[in-house]
Design brief:
The protein has 80 residues and is α+β, with helices and mostly antiparallel strands. It is built from 3 helices and 4 strands, in the order E-H-E-H-E-E-H. Strands 2-1-3-4 form a 4-stranded mixed β-sheet. The radius of gyration is 12 Å and the shape is globular.
């Protein structure tokens, strides 16, 4: 199981990213623990200066804007 964190204050782009990551993981048959992080101090701990940010297993994989669906798919491998 992958631990996925969406970092951001709760803006529309953050919510869209949260939904997109969840949809792609389900479609790929990948179990994830999806967490929304909205505390500025914790977001800063990851060095994110532009939200939304995406962290998978404590690795920052994206920052700033909604990630492209193909990019999100690449994080979870081929469909099951």
């Amino acid at each position: 199981m992958k631990n996925v964190k969406i970092l951001g204050p709760g803006c529309r782009n953050c919510q869209t990213t949260l939904t997109l990551v969840g949809e792609v993981a389900r479609a790929r048959g990948v179990e994830i623990q999806l967490e929304k992080v909205d505390q500025i101090a914790e977001i800063a701990r990851y060095g994110i200066m532009s939200t939304p940010g995406v962290v998978i297993d404590e690795q920052v994989v994206h920052a700033g804007g909604i990630p492209d669906r193909r990019k999100v798919e690449s994080w979870f491998g081929p469909a099951a």
